[in-house]
Amino acid sequence: MKNFIIRTITGIIFVAAVVASFLRPEAMVLLFSIVTGLTVWEFTGLVNQRPDVTVNRFISTVAAVYFFYAMTYFCSDIYAGVAKSVVFIPYLVTIIYLLVAELYLKQKDPIQDWAYTMLAQMYIALPFSLLNVLAFNATNQGVVAFNTLLPLSVFVFLWVNDSGAYCCGSLLGRHKLFPRISPGKSWEGSIGGAVFVLAAAWAISSFLDGQMLTLPEWLGLGLTVVVFGTWGDLVESLFKRTLGIKDSGNILPGHGGMLDRFDSSLLAIPAAVVYLYTLSLF
Fold first, then answer.
1. Separation between Cα atoms, residue 146 and residue 137, nearest integer Å
2. What is the pLDDT along the chain (282 residues), one digit of tens a residue?
3. In terms of DSSP H, where are the helices of the chain?
4. 64: exposed, middle or buried (Cβ count in 10 Å: 0-12, 13-18, 19+)
5. Which of 124, 133, 90, 117 is nearest to 272 (CA)?
6. 2-23: string of b/e by CB count within 10 Å (b at 16+)?
7. Nearest one of 210, 207, 187, 211 to 199, comparing CA atoms
8. To bridge 164 with a disulfide, which of 193, 221, 250, 260 should be the other Cys (CB 3.0-4.6 Å)?
9. In degrees rounded to 5, what are phi and psi of residue 144?
10. Cβ distance 94 to 63 under 8 Å?
11. Three-class secondary structure of residue 173 per DSSP
12. DSSP secondary structure string, 65-111?
């Protein structure tokens, strides 16, 4: 009972913080730059426990946070100054340094160091940075505006999917979705979660009265988030199963670590960006 109360309180605070952050661009940028740094720090700490792996946690984390801010600058007009493309040069220099440094560190398995260093950037830093693509959009007048709804809707769909899948899976779950990696997930739960998300997408479309996206487009975005969010959850489950751990950390009482909390979004965010970009082409 005590764990349930702690989990509930943490969940409410977490949801409130994410929702509130999307009310102001500065708040969103600050919160998710911190989330990016904490998640990369957690990830590199976990992989450094593997035999013969020594990833530079500090530089990897700083690089990831810098990349997030670079994407913010590139996608928005919050910051003024140098040409936009120049902002990525320090990040590229840092990545080159992390690769070249292995020549001089004399580690037992530099290939693993390289692999885990790049994985932290591709698996964590890049997806979180793509939130900026969802959050900052150019208007017909050529002015960049902060878009609250698109990035927030991705998280709402993820939360609705998790809740719907849990409820339907608990009541109706009979057929395992992926027993080798996540024995608790069922096809009934996944389908139930998708139905709840489609209902949420319909509600959003009705509330907006066809603005921004049409009803079929909102439904498509919801399904994209469901499918890739589920895969994101399974990817992190495979990661933890490979390492032999239950939770990625304990920074969020009752919810584990940052990877535990944001695992679904790490694939759902890039998928949403690709989906919406594809819509803009046709």
1. 7
2. 666 678 788 888 889 999 999 999 999 999 999 999 999 999 999 999 999 999 999 999 999 999 999 999 998 875 555 567 789 999 999 999 999 999 999 888 999 999 999 999 999 999 999 999 999 987 766 678 888 899 999 999 999 999 999 899 888 878 898 888 988 889 999 999 999 999 999 999 999 887 889 999 999 999 999 999 999 999 999 999 999 998 888 887 777 889 999 999 999 999 999 999 998 876
3. 2-21, 25-47, 57-75, 89-100, 102-105, 110-120, 126-129, 131-135, 149-172, 187-208, 215-243, 258-262, 265-281
4. buried
5. 133
6. eeeeeeeeeeeeeeeebeebbe
7. 207
8. 193
9. -80, 130
10. yes
11. coil
12. HHHHHHHHHHH-SSS-SS-GGGGGHHHHHHHHHHHHTHHHH--S-HH
**68 phi, psi to nearest 5 deg:** -60, -45
Tell me the one-letter amino acid at 63: A
| Residue with token string 């960049």 | 144
Read off the tokens for 41: 């720090």
Q: CA gyration radius for the chain?
A: 20
- Write the single-letter amino acid at 272: A
C-alpha angle 23/259/274, rounded to 5°? 60
* Distance of alpha carbon 198 from alpha carbon 223, whole angstroms: 7
CB atoms within 10 A of CB 127: 21
Residue 178, H or E segment? strand 176-178
Helix (H, G, I), strand (E, B) or coil at 274: helix
